[in-house]
Specification:
Layout lengths: L18 H10 L3 H14 L4 H13 L3 H11 L5 H13 L3 H13 L7 H11 L3 H14 L4 H13 L3 H14 L4 H13 L3 H14 L4 H13 L3 H14 L4 H10 L9 H8 L1 H4 L1
Length: 284
């Protein structure tokens, strides 16, 4: 997560000791406790320090405490920096305040120089609001400036799937994989696009590659099971589907629908038998 400082921070008297630089380096290297301590020390001496507020807000965001990050990032955002505005928007969105996040991201993508992550973040937010045409336009605009952005290509692929452009989605995910060959979201998205084209052999391969990156991704394991069903590999498919439900019991009903839509499904069976096959205890 980029933590470039707000515009007026970095050369001033408040940063002479290098504490803010060390805090930013600690975040980049995943040492969140160290970054937290350094930022809090600065804020103890200067409570309105925008750079330290930004760093501490990013720490909170990385820890999953988006609501706690919002006031810190709001304070830092007064500097008018697109990095901070993007992080604030992320915190707002993750706090369930998508409407409040939108103007901050619109502001961030209009800044110069542009901040690459602002575009996929805005595209993803517009996607979540079902504003698919606007999401596609924002992402394509961002890709003109940042053609190597794997995150933007992934976000575009997801939007194109929703717009029914399966070929375009495949191309977008494929481009993301050119930029970052092991990107889990790109692997998963490409697999979904292949699945939708009934290319189950290749889709299963890419769902498998996704799981090699994130073994606990329940949805990917479930979709791999669906592809294996279509490839008439019943035992392997059921093992995948059961494993997905064990990872995420909330997928039980989705798993039933996967079996229903599969051309290889066995739905002459009674619902109670289907439940037993899926492991009803795991399904809740």
């Amino acid at each position: 997560m980029s933590v470039r400082p707000p515009k007026q921070v970095g050369r001033g008297k408040s940063n002479r000791d290098g504490a803010l630089d060390r805090a930013k380096a600690a975040i980049e290297e995943g040492r969140l406790d160290e970054a937290d301590s350094l930022a809090r020390d600065i804020l103890t001496k200067k409570p309105d320090h925008p750079g330290a507020s930004h760093v501490l807000g990013v720490v909170m965001l990385a820890r999953g405490s988006a609501a706690d990050a919002v006031p810190l990032l709001t304070m830092a955002a007064a500097a008018g920096d697109p990095v901070v505005e993007t992080h604030l928007a992320m915190a707002l969105r993750q706090s369930g305040r998508a409407g409040d996040a939108l103007p901050w991201l619109e502001r961030a993508v209009a800044r110069q120089p542009a901040f690459e992550p602002a575009f996929p973040e805005l595209g993803t937010l517009l996607h979540s609001l079902n504003r698919f045409e606007e999401a596609e336009a924002v992402l394509r605009k961002g890709l003109k400036t940042f053609p190597g952005s794997a995150e933007a290509w992934c976000a575009l692929g997801r939007v194109l799937i929703m717009r029914g452009d399966r070929n375009g989605a495949q191309l977008a995910f494929a481009r993301a994989l050119v930029e970052r060959p092991a990107h889990p979201g790109a692997l998963f998205g490409y697999a979904c696009a292949l699945r939708d084209e009934a290319d189950f052999t290749r889709a299963a391969d890419f769902f498998g590659k996704t799981l090699a990156q994130i073994p606990e991704w329940a949805e990917a394991r479930l979709q791999l099971g669906y592809c294996l069903l279509e490839l008439d590999q019943w035992d392997e498919a059921m093992a995948c589907i059961r494993a997905a439900i064990k990872l995420d019991p909330g997928l039980y009903d989705t798993a039933r629908h996967v079996l229903v839509r599969s051309s290889r499904g066995r739905f002459w069976l009674r619902p109670s038998v289907v439940a037993e096959m899926l492991g009803r205890d795991a399904g809740g």
